[in-house]
């Protein structure tokens, strides 16, 4: 009987943890990638993302030698600005993507 209680408690705790992580990821509070996972796929690279609200965010995307500032919202995505990549400044303490 004790083994069944302990196993049930472990399953309950793991379930609550999983539900909490799912909820935090859904509202944009948590993001994760596989360890060592690259954000680069070909010529497109997601450089930075800033959440403005649960349904809105700004994305800085590098496409070749262009920097794109894209706003994502409930209605879709909107291109805010497109500039040569050399004009994009890297935040202090961050590395310049190669």
How would you describe what is shown here?
This protein has a five-stranded antiparallel beta sheet, with no helix packed on it. The protein folds into two domains: 1-32; 39-98. It is elongated. It is an alpha+beta fold. It has one helix and five strands.
Structural class label: alpha+beta
Determine the strand fraction and express it as a percent band.
35-45%
- Biggest sheet strand order reads 1-2-3-4-5
> Using only CA atoms, what is the Rg?
20 Å
Overall number of strands:
5
Biggest beta sheet attributes:
5 strands, antiparallel
Kindly, what is the distance between the CA atoms of the first and last residues, rounded to a whole number of angstroms?
Answer: 59 Å
Report helical residue fraction: 25-40%
Give helix and strand order, one letter per element, not per position: HEEEEE
Q: What is the number of helices?
A: 1
As an assembly, this protein is single chain
- Which whole number gives the mean pLDDT? 81
Shape label: elongated
Unreliably modeled segments: none
The tally of domains stands at 2
């Amino acid at each position: 009987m004790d083994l069944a209680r302990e196993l049930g408690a472990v399953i309950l705790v793991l379930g609550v943890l999983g539900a909490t992580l799912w909820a935090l990821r859904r509202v944009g509070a948590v993001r994760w990638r596989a360890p060592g996972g690259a954000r680069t796929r070909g010529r497109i690279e997601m450089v930075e993302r800033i959440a403005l609200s649960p349904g809105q965010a700004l994305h800085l995307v590098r496409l070749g030698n262009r920097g794109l500032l894209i706003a994502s919202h409930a209605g879709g995505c909107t291109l805010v600005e497109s500039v040569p990549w050399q004009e994009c400044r890297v935040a202090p303490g961050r590395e310049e993507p190669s």
